[in-house]
UniProtKB/TrEMBL annotation:
Alphabetical keyword list: Amino-acid biosynthesis, ATP-binding, Cytoplasm, Glycosyltransferase, Histidine biosynthesis, Nucleotide-binding, Transferase
GO annotations of cellular component type: cytoplasm
Gene3D superfamilies membership: Periplasmic binding protein-like II
Cell compartment(s), UniProt: Cytoplasm
Organism, as annotated: Rhodoferax koreensis
Pathway the protein takes part in: Amino-acid biosynthesis; L-histidine biosynthesis; L-histidine from 5-phospho-alpha-D-ribose 1-diphosphate: step 1/9
Lineage, uppermost ranks: Bacteria, Pseudomonadati, Pseudomonadota, Betaproteobacteria, Burkholderiales
Protein name: ATP phosphoribosyltransferase
Amino acid sequence: MITLALSKGRIFDDTLPLLDAAGIQVLDDPEKSRKLILATNRPDVRVVLVRASDVPTYVEYGGADIGITGKDTLLEHGSQGLYQPLDLQIAKCRISVAVRNDFDYAHAVRQGSRLTVATKYVAIAREFFAAKGVHVDLIKLYGSMELAPLTGLADAIVDLVSTGNTLRANHLIEVERIMDISSRLVVNQAALKLKQAPIRRLIDAFAAAVAARNPASQSPS
Ligand code: AMP
């Protein structure tokens, strides 16, 4: 049995076509069912639904053999002991700094200045501002980051941006792009040895599906 860890939402939706191309169909709809273990048309493959930030943990400790998770999650929560064979090029977005559109960010990030930043991505934000020589007070949030600058909780936020619609709707502007994000395949190291043939077949099928969908950019990173 191969267990694949996924999180609900964007990653799940974007993974279904890749699974399909690999000949795997998930038999339950997670939006309609409360099941956390989903069967597939393949008796030897099942999907477990976990919180996005828990995917690396499940795969690292063998609760799942394979997982799909964002680069943001891997950077923020660590990716020790995980084999990362493939950039799936799904759930693409970027992690950016945003502020209220009336906030003078350029002035605020002068060397030696101090900025209050609210984010779920404390490690990524700390490293980014440290490299710029900007002192930051970081406030950890778990959601609705956009609210922080509007209520005076923080000067800036560090969050995922896709279309930019959420920022625009809340009168925020993106002032710096920290990095591009996409989802990665992660594999448990022991499973890769013990279930080598079926896992390799699955990785190869995913790689072929990704290459077919993205003919211009085939190099993993
Ligand atoms: P958008 O309005 O399209 O810019 O999307 C921004 C909102 O969706 C923010 O609340 C983000 O945290 C979230 N978001 C954007 N892209 C992703 C992604 N790839 N995975 C998870 N959340 C995302």
